[in-house]
Amino acid sequence: RKEVEQDPGPFNVPEGATVAFNCTYSNSASQSFFWYRQDCRKEPKLLMSVYSSGNEDGRFTAQLNRASQYISLLIRDSKLSDSATYLCVNGGATNKLIFGTGTLLAVQP
Amino acid sequence: DTGVSQDPRHKITKRGQNVTFRCDPISEHNRLYWYRQTLGQGPEFLTYFQNEAQLEKSRLLSDRFSAERPKGSFSTLEIQRTEQGDSAMYLCASSPTTGHYNGYTFGSGTRLTVV
What we know:
The complex is a heterodimer of chains A (109) and B (115).
Chain A: E1 4-6, E2 11-14, E3 19-25, E4 32-38, E5 45-50, E6 55-57, E7 60-65, E8 70-75, E9 84-91, E10 97-99, E11 103-108
Parallel strand pairs in A: 2-11
Antiparallel strand pairs in A: 1-3, 3-8, 4-5, 4-9, 6-7, 7-8, 9-10, 9-11
Chain B: E1 5-7, E2 10-13, E3 19-24, E4 31-37, E5 44-50, E6 53-57, E7 65-68, E8 75-79, E9 88-95, E10 105-106, E11 110-114
Parallel strand pairs in B: 2-11
Antiparallel strand pairs in B: 1-3, 3-8, 4-5, 4-9, 5-6, 7-8, 9-10, 9-11
């Protein structure tokens, strides 16, 4: 079983739609969780950290469920510019971050 | 200091040749990481340094791969006797010791093509 699992997609959604991605992780000792965004042939960039209490940044909301070991990302009012690969990431005590394979989002006009 | 710098951006090499990549982290970051990413996959951890000490190496890092960070600043990743399977994007990232919960800052990567 992979340490971090994501649906690779693609998720094809119209502009303005709400889309949600889920991710599961296997290491119950994981201490930190993130969503990264990666544009085609570019480096990953931190989108947001994920906290147990949940956190929101504009149109983006991230949730962590430690009991079920999953992380979610909700994007509201999708924009064309949201088209990218979204990487689910978790880190343990060794400071090494483990990345999922990514979920490809394509927002269409 | 504008971020993590990697050089070269692209490298095409013949199978069997040796290649070396360089990474310059953000100057105040004492942790430096190397990852490899192939098409359709997320970045895979290779190794990490805290200052000049290499603290962890992945099983992916075969004996043809070696990484150094001699003065705790820039790092190099060398691949000896390259194989076609080494073709990938090699990403470097850095973070401060106390920035664990802020994730990493990645460089733009070095794209290696072995022909």
